[in-house]
Design a protein that fits this description.
The complex is a heterotrimer of chains A (329), B (343) and C (320). By secondary structure, chain A is an alpha/beta fold. Chain A is built from 13 helices and eleven strands. With 343 residues, chain B is mainly alpha-helical. Chain B has twelve helices and two strands, in the order αααββααααααααα. Classes of the chains: A alpha/beta (329), B mainly alpha (343), C mainly alpha (320).
């Protein structure tokens, strides 16, 4: 499959006390047509900002300062704003974490979805309304006719998220960016929304960039996984490979810290320490402050990208060394 | 009151205010949050802060009075009258009537002045030096704005936080009180209070306090209602902290930024209100408002007498502008949202 | 919604009663009737004249119900005020209600256009400034607003009158003519000055409102959908901003009274404000009492109207 979206050396900075801090630091990855790529990391790892950077929605005072975002050959970062607007919502759609606040409280949900449709398709109001009703049924909203004229505060969190999904998919985008779509929802609703996303993805062949910190969701939906830490990628692999044989110490730590029934009664392992804030990033590998496999080059020298196997990318000196690579410099 | 002469009382109050300011500075220095905020504020609004400082200094210089030390040849003051530093600087400068700034002769009739060329801003209808009057007005403005706020705000906090935190009948009562007072147009209420209580300075200040207390009371009540529901308050309660401690340690500090901003806004509002009161004839003696009111008819004379109203008006504008700019700066610095980062 | 309306109206009635009580305290308890008599008749008036005056004006009865349940000033006060039986002026014995009836028209003719024109001018200006946030237009705009806000309304009026009357020597700077044709001529100056004095504070406040609404999540959603900035401004931000703007209108109504007071007095508009100013100078407590009551009544009506209009603007309130 050819790459639908290619992100190359993306860098987004926010002003810091002394100098700009790159919260998205030299990120490169690709998304193939119809595939689900999970972007995994803790809070503050820069995953949400990466998504916003792709759509050029980074809030001031942040800005995208370097890199390319190639969508079918066009660099989105260089597009004039009017054309970018035609990409947003039509070719790449985005849904967010908090359905509570993401919908305009004084406009009916039907009207908001219709707005998305009418922004990109020249449809009459009647047709747009009919289409919205269809969409509501597709995403599993019960009693769609009545719901068209409901206001957001009438709907539960799960229903609101379904409305957001309907709004996002109304224009049949090639890519859907889902930023922690289920984090704010109850566990039972989470499962339903995930199932909905999986079905829609399969039926329409939409590629999904799924932002999450929940490895369980990764396991359910993702084809490939990219792990971020403190603004940088640390490992990229296919889902099965990553979950069964993680190479980067951070990924290993993450997987180890998932509670499992098989280890009931044991102490839950954790990764000691905390994520350093941007002004405290070490010059070398950012995970070095907490890494159990740390040795001399780690704190000073940032590891280069290694490709230990087809479709796998890692950034780690230890992995490099154990593969008999270039070795410590 | 208390058998003290008024000037002794005002001296004591000045000292008390200075001590209070000193304590405030100590508190700000100690707490990192406030220290940071103060430094940022100084970086951004140096000019305005310096300007406010100048007014403060002038006001202070006029706040401490003592008796004696009047030279023999000065006739316009009683030998035993308490005089402030500013009074003493301008002792013996009184002319007979109007004179233009830096003039050598009187405005009407061109009779020679007693102190030709020394009145930088001219003299008013009674011959008093306009610069002198303007400087004295600073203290009055600070009194009106500052002292009144210092009384109104704690009162508003007491009722507002009390009502919001404890709820029940007290809250019903306070809410009704606020609604009633807020339903009366501020100026009308002010007028009613002053007519009822009298037109002396103290009554006017009390009246001003009563009318401005309401807004902040409502605000602090609303904030307390919000804060009361927060998890860490429930946690504190679960730990067994007494209600008093919870209010003082958890609720009040979160209202601190509102208090500061309200104080600044209230200050300018009060001073501007007093100007209107002066024009209505029920203002405070010696204020810039009174100067403006007394002088506004002079503009229609031919040739116009403009210096007294210009002086008072500019002084007023300068203080209000500086306070507003500092207030804006404080609001920007203390507002958590403007410190937003990449989260 | 119906229950909400009824509750709001009832509370309004309660507040009216509270206001009357406060007025009673101020004008009857704090200021004794003898003091009022003395101020009207002069310090040297003999006691019998004062007595007679007090009887004439109905001040000679006990104040509180527990002193005399059938005939006390408190109940009297309530009864009279609520039935609009305002009595005679303390200063010149003229019927107060006649003066009020004559004054309401001019006052409203000044205040209502001022309110709406104020909105008409301030909202677009603040939209403009908010749209260009963080640019020079924004910074300059805010600075101008702070500047404008720091000038006392009095100075604006004096300045305007000086400019128009003395320097430009335009049409008469004060006076009033109630005929529909001539009214705009006399109202133009006070309205313009009133706008000038108010626009600074309003634009600053509305700008803050627009900026706050701009940073909400649903605006990000709209942008992600591909909406353009003007579309976002009108369809999403403006509609949500109406709610706090409406609140501000409520809060601004009392200041309309203040401003109107000054404007009326300076520009010779014979409205309620002028009556109040005259009453202060003449120590006319009866008229003052009535003016404060009328002012409060108008304000309460304005507040209730605005509260109820929230239902139109905010669907969350509608279905409570």
């Amino acid at each position: 499959m050819s790459a639908l979206l290619e992100v190359r050396n993306l860098r987004t900075t926010f002003p810091g006390a002394l100098r700009p801090l790159p919260v998205v630091d030299d990120i490169s990855f690709s998304l193939a047509r119809g595939e689900v790529l999970a972007l995994v990391g803790e809070s503050g790892s820069g995953k949400s900002m990466t998504a916003l950077s792709i759509l050029r929605l980074v809030p001031k005072p942040g800005q995208v300062v370097a890199g390319e975002v190639m969508l079918a050959g066009e660099d989105l970062l260089q597009l004039p704003v009017t054309q970018m607007r035609r990409v947003r919502g039509a070719r790449i759609a985005m849904i967010f974490q908090e359905p509570m606040t993401c919908l305009n409280p004084v406009v009916t949900v039907g009207a908001q979805v219709m707005e998305a449709i009418q922004l990109h398709d020249s449809m009459s109001k009647v047709d747009a309304r009919a289409r919205t009703r269809e969409l509501f049924a597709e995403v599993g909203i019960p009693d769609p006719d009545a719901r068209l004229d409901a206001y957001p505060h009438h709907l539960s969190g799960g229903l609101k998220q379904r409305v957001m999904i309907a709004m996002a998919l109304s224009t049949r985008p090639e890519i859907l960016i889902a930023d922690e779509p289920t984090t704010a929802l109850d566990v039972t609703i989470q499962a339903q929304i995930l199932a909905l996303l999986r079905n829609l993805q399969r039926d329409r062949g939409t590629a999904i960039l799924l932002i999450t910190h929940d490895l369980g969701i990764v396991n359910e939906l993702a084809d490939r996984v990219a792990v971020m830490y403190a603004g940088r990628l640390v490992e990229v692999a296919e889902r099965k490979a990553l979950l069964s044989d993680p190479l980067h110490p951070y990924t290993q730590g993450l997987l180890r810290s998932i509670p499992a029934l098989s280890r009931a009664g044991e102490r839950l392992p954790e990764i000691p320490g905390v994520v350093p804030s941007p002004d405290q990033w070490p010059a070398g590998c950012r995970f070095s402050t907490r890494c159990p496999l740390r040795f001399e080059p780690c704190a000073e020298l940032f590891p280069e990208e290694i490709r230990p196997a087809a479709g796998r990318r890692v950034w780690c000196h230890e992995v490099e060394r154990s593969m008999g690579g270039k070795g410590a410099s | 009151m208390m058998g003290f002469e008024p000037y002794v009382f005002s001296n004591l109050v000045t000292v008390a205010v200075l001590i209070g300011l000193g304590l405030l500075v100590r508190v700000v220095r100690r707490q990192r949050l406030w220290n940071e905020a103060a430094r940022q504020l100084w970086d951004r609004r140096k000019l305005a802060i310096v300007l406010v400082g100048i007014y403060l200094v002038i006001g202070l210089l006029d706040s401490v009075a003592w008796k004696g030390g009047v030279p023999e040849d000065v006739v316009d003051v009683l030998p035993n009258a308490p005089l402030t530093l500013i009074d003493r600087v301008f002792l013996g400068t009184k002319e007979a009537s109007y004179s233009a700034p830096l003039a050598l002769v009187e405005f009407y009739g061109a009779a020679p002045l007693r102190r030709p060329g020394t009145h930088a801003l001219g003299t008013d209808i009674l011959g008093r030096d306009v610069l002198y009057l303007t400087l004295k007005g600073a203290r009055v403005a600070l009194l009106i704005g500052g002292l009144t706020s210092l009384i109104a705000i704690p009162l508003a906090l007491l009722f507002g936080v009390g009502a919001g935190y404890f709820g029940g009948r007290f809250d019903d009562f306070v809410f009704f009180l606020i609604s009633t007072l807020a339903s009366m147009p501020g100026l009308l209420l002010l007028i009613a209070l002053i007519m009822a209580m009298g037109r002396d300075t103290l009554s006017v200040c009390i009246a001003l306090g009563v009318t401005s207390w309401v807004g902040f009371c409502r605000l602090s009540r609303a904030e307390t209602l919000k804060l009361r529901e927060l998890d860490y308050v429930s946690a504190a309660r679960a730990l067994g902290l007494s209600e008093y401690r919870i209010v003082v340690r958890h609720i009040l500090p979160n209202l601190a930024h509102l208090i500061v901003i309200t104080f600044v806004l209230m200050f300018s509002g009060l001073v501007l209100s007093e100007v209107v009161l002066s024009w209505l004839g029920i203002g405070v003696d010696g204020s810039w408002g009174q100067m403006i009111d007394g002088a506004r008819n002079e503009l229609s004379r031919e040739p116009i007498i403009w210096w007294n109203i210009a002086a008072a008006g500019s002084a007023l504008f300068g203080l209000i502008l500086a306070v507003n700019i500092v207030g804006d700066g404080i609001r920007d610095v203390l507002d958590p949202r403007t410190q937003k980062g990449p989260t | 919604m119906g229950a909400y309306v009824i509750r709001r109206l009832l509370y309004g009635v309660g507040v009216v009663l509270g206001v009357l009580f406060l007025l009673f305290i101020l004008f009857f308890a704090v200021t004794k009737p003898e003091d009022i008599a003395r101020r009207a008749l002069g310090e040297k008036a003999p006691p019998e004249v004062i007595e007679q005056w007090m009887v004439n004006h109905g001040y000679d009865r006990p104040l509180w119900p527990w002193q005399d349940l059938d005939d006390n000033l408190l109940f009297d006060h309530y009864r009279k005020m609520l039935t609009f039986e305002f009595g005679l002026s303390d200063a010149d014995d003229s019927p107060i209600i006649d003066r009020i009836a004559a004054g309401i028209g001019p006052s409203l003719a000044l205040t209502v256009p001022l309110l709406f024109l104020g909105l008409l001018v301030s909202i677009p200006l603040s939209l403009l400034v908010a749209f260009f946030r963080e640019t020079y237009i924004d910074r300059m705009g805010v600075f101008l607003c702070v500047l404008a806000m720091s000038v006392s309304m009095l100075l604006y009026i004096i300045g305007a009158q000086f400019l128009i009357g003395k320097i430009l020597r335009w049409y008469p700077i004060s006076g009033f003519d109630p005929t529909l044709l001539m009214m705009p001529r006399f109202l133009a100056m006070p309205i313009i000055v009133g706008l000038l004095g108010g626009v600074g504070g309003d634009v600053r406040f509305y700008r803050t409102v627009f900026l706050e609404e701009s940073s909400r999540d649903f605006v990000r959603t709209a942008r992600a959908k591909g909406a353009s900035e003007p579309q976002i401004m009108t369809r999403h931000i403006l509609r949500n901003a109406l709610i706090p703007i409406l609140t501000n209108v409520v809060l601004a109504i009392p200041f309309l009274f203040t401003g109107a007071l000054l404007l009326e007095a300076f520009f010779g508009i014979p409205g309620l404000g002028s009556i109040t100013v005259d009453a202060i100078a003449a120590n006319d407590f009866a008229t003052l009492r009535t003016m404060v009551f009328i002012g409060s009544l108008l304000l309460i009506v304005g507040q209730i109207a605005t509260d109820l209009s929230y239902g139109l603007v905010d669907p969350r309130v509608r279905f409570e």
